[in-house]
Here is the input.
Amino acid sequence: MADTDTALGAPAERREGRDKVTGAARYAAEHPVSGRVHAWPVAAAIASGSVRTIDAGEALRLPGVLTVLTHENAPRLADPDDPTLAVLQNSRVPHRGWPVALVVAETLEAARSGAAAVRVEYAARDHDVTLTENHPAAYVPDEANGGYPAQREQGDPEGAFTSAAVRVDADYRVPPLHNHPMEPHAATARWDDDRLVVHDSSQGATAVRATLAALFRLPEDRVTVMSEHVGGGFGSKGTPRPHVVLAAMAARQTGRPVTVALPRRLLPALVGHRAPTLHRLRLGATEQGSLTSLRHEVTTHTSRIKEFVEQAAVPARVMYAAPNSRTGHRVVPLDVPSPSWMRAPGEAPGMYALESAMDELAVALGMDPVELRIANEPDTEPDSGKPFSSRHLVECLREGARRFDWSHRDPRPGTRSAGPLLLGSGVAAAMYPVLIQPSTASAQARPDGSFVVRVNATDIGTGARTVLAQVAADALGVPLERVRTEIGNSDLPSASLAGGSSGTASWGWAVHLACTRLRTVLAEHTGSLPEPGLTASADTEGSADADSDYSRHAFGAHFAEVSVDTVTGEVRVRRLLGVYAAGHILNARTARSQFIGGMTMGLGMALTEGSTMDAAFGDFTEADLAAYHVPAHADVPAVEAHWIDEDDPHLNPMGSKGIGEIGIVGTAAAIGNAVHHATGVRYRELPLTPDRVLAGLP
Here is the structure.
């Protein structure tokens, strides 16, 4: 690990920690603005069609109700680039849960009562919300999420599979998944004459400002968006969502500050979800375990108003050396809410399927699954042919196996038990791309010897304030306590969003450059500092986003031990261990928190989290935390996170890779593989709930 005597790598405590645990940190719905009122959306009760009539009379007669916005009286917006933001602009209902009205009232309770009193008549149309592998509307998109080609092929994958000595041909299913951050999506908006000021629960205030300015036809300098504290997002707050548009519309209509806090049951409909993915994996190998053919084909769904294609086949293009390969995506447009980003989009479901298939191949070969992965380690990235900037997956597997005591594992399934419990262990690899976006930052030296770093970064619970101060202190060569960071306000130097595990790498690059320049300015300055201090700025456009000659990814290995109750079907994870290679770790404390958080989310993906789409009503059945089960403390055992320090000069000035998402990527597969080792039964659909497991046991 890094030297804890230096600013970078030290396990520095989060600077906002005390404010959060004492309640001093204010979130988007908690800012006490004079004259503030509240709004509550009315959600469409049909899955497809249009609004025929809306009767708001009863709602308007209730005490405290100020107005009811509908498509007939709401402010007109400019056409958005994202059609999910075109709320209350016409009578169309593209899916169940779409906002058809917004009730504004003096209190939250009055707004909710008013919403219940609004009467809506619909012209419903037949709907289709069911994803199947052979759906007649399935098509191959131009590209998958992230700009990846939808299909890639090398060599003769079909012929190589047919002639392979050992073959695996398996289907895997991952259900719809929901982000459910601790803080629901909320915004408080007010208009100061012709200036819009918003507190928003967002992963990127710069993007929200640009979107609101375009929608309301304002110059960007007349919009301020603040996201000082954000209670999680997991991708669902990565781009502007309807709540912030509704809040701004209601504030303009009423002339009062308005807070919109979405009820949790509406989150799956309005802020995105991880789309269900149907996977077919075909692996062909020699008797010695060398892959000769790799095929990963994915079918997923999207909404009818916005195409979003979960890029779940993309990881197979990076992971293993296979001379013949085919990876592809098909998508089905349905009458469903628009899917969007959820932690490790593409990688989490894609690696679950790929790593499960690799485990099946290891069993078919009679080969240790760790050694199988090592045997298929590529020299260069299989898809592009680029050299890896650094790739220490083998070291992660070896170190994880050592720490997990893997060598003493009996490879035979179903051989360990304790009373009614069957015990097993499993392994899976993980990867996540290095993503870096341009950002700007400024650094100021003050006469009192302190320094202030300003960048519109967003801290979504990752410790960004603290880590950016560490980057600045290291670049300036000063103690950490002399550096203060200002983030979370669109009036600060613009920055990219907190997403794609790119935040620290992107903002840190700009902060490092600004501080390096400031250090030069200070070295050339003579005498005491002027009262305003001295300032230097940086903009990494053209460098941070420049094409690289290298394939840049973080890698990791996950190990899991489980027990399976043969009486109840309950699966319990007894131990989780992850070892990662993610460049230089910038803060040992926050990094371990990120790794463990991702692994916990992967545990939920494996065992408890899953949603179903009701075919009759066109709605997610598991819409809130009463039905959608995220892991509780009792579900999470001792979780260990370790890392290998990489010295990779092809990343950024800090030599860091993103760590926010790789923890989830291989966890579900490791747990699923452990369940197979415990029971001898291969389950290929998540989550591994007791009813599903019990039905499969002999």
